[in-house]
Amino acid sequence: MSTLYTHAKLATLAPTSDWGLLDNAALLVQNSRIAWLGAMADWPASRIALGLQADAVLEVDMQGRLITPALIDCHTHLVYVGNRANEFEMRLQGATYEEIARAGGGIKSTVAATRAANDEQLLQSALIRAKSLMAEGVATIEIKSGYGLSELDEARSLRIARKVGQALGITVKTTYLAAHALPPEFADRPDDYISAVCEWLPRLHSEGLVDAVDAFCEGIGFSTAQTRRVFEAAKALGLPVKLHAEQLSDLGGSALAASFGAMSCDHLEHLSASGIAAMKSAGTVAVLLPGAYYFLRETKLPPIQALRDAGVPIAIATDHNPGSSPTLSPLLMLSMACTFFKLTPLEAFAGMTLQASRALGLQDRGTLAVGQRADLAVWNVDHPNQLCYPFGGSHPLYQLIAS
Ligand code: DI6
Ligand code: FE
Prior knowledge:
This protein is 37% helix and 21% strand. It is α/β, with parallel strands linked by helices. The strands form 2 sheets. It has an 8-stranded parallel β-sheet. Helix 9 links the parallel strand 10 (242-245) and strand 11 (264-267). Helix 5 (119-134) crosses helix 6 (151-168) and helix 7 (190-206) runs parallel beside helix 8 (224-236). The longest helix has 18 residues, at 151-168. It is globular, with a radius of gyration of 21 Å. 51% of the residues are buried. The structure holds 3-[(4S)-2,5-dioxoimidazolidin-4-yl]propanoic acid (DI6) and fe (iii) ion. Fe (iii) ion is lined by residues 75, 77, 244, 319, 321. 3-[(4S)-2,5-dioxoimidazolidin-4-yl]propanoic acid binds at residues 77, 106-107, 110, 180, 216, 244, 247, 292, 319, 321-325.
């Protein structure tokens, strides 16, 4: 059976300079793909041209609602237990994120909690988070490991990430982020830890657990030399890379990542002109994370205009994690991308659809076009700019259709 969504307004995002709005339109889904879209008036002739009998098409009246590509959250850390509200309070009293991390809190405290949890606790908490993202229109989620930091615990996190996708009928792309922090077993031996990270990777990859490889390249994370070793291990397996880069300082991680053809560099508040040029020539997407910018009370903005001028694609994601971005609202991120980063609503929305698909190396989603996956978000708004303008509690999603 084919399904035709009728009387809809479509925001196709197909011409990238524009919302690609189509009023009084219809969209045909066959075998989980968009098989046709166009004006309602063109449907009868198109149905015949497609060789479809009228009774082979189930018609669903959208009553004028807006249909967009489903959202894509291309940067999350969904698999962990616990919370870091205590560190939030410490930061409000003057401690910095870096000081807390250096004192053994931060990522390491979530690693301890995550290692102590059982599989069911870990899965259930990840499912609840993923469902919250879906409630705001997300049908593709990138999920990083990085709160296990041992071979067994990293494998467990990645397996749970895969299970989230299977259980909820959405796409989950997994990212191996063992190079996130130094676990206690390797205290003061970061190079030995990186050797272990590189050794675990082929085994986890052979289990089908890894879609991409990431690292936290930062003063409180890993150096560019250590990141390079992780990227060499990924390259040897043909795995794409991405990087947490230039969030708190400029180590030149973006240029390194670009030299490995990175799909994305993420955060980028301290990105330099040479980093931008390297990203542009490698076709690397800039993933901006307004939640972390807000929650860490950053004041240095990513170089948005320079990224725009250079033609580097800009994506937006939640960066959901317990330490620097405990948000589960992609729509709030769209609003913040506009208010903090001065993206236009179209840039922000394309950043969580079209550009986010590029950041994950996915060509089959992020726009409404024939042949694309029929991952659709149906909204109770008249125009997609209304998705970027309210902040908090707007609940505009009518239906998520995840193929
Ligand atoms: N950058 C981030 O935003 C998260 N990881 C990273 O490398 C923060 C992770 C955390 O604080 O738990
Ligand atoms: Fe992150």
